[in-house]
Amino acid sequence: MSSSETNTVQLQAENDHGASGVLNRLGNTSQCPICGSEVHNEAYHCTKCRSFFCYHCRARLGFNESVLQCANRACGYYGKLLCSTCDAPASKREAPLQYIEPIDGYWPGWLLLTAIAGFMVGLYFTWIAGILTFLTMFVGVGWVLHAMQFNIFGRQRQVLMERTNNYHPCICCQSETKVTSLQKRTS
Question: Global pTM?
Answer without folding.
Answer: 0.51
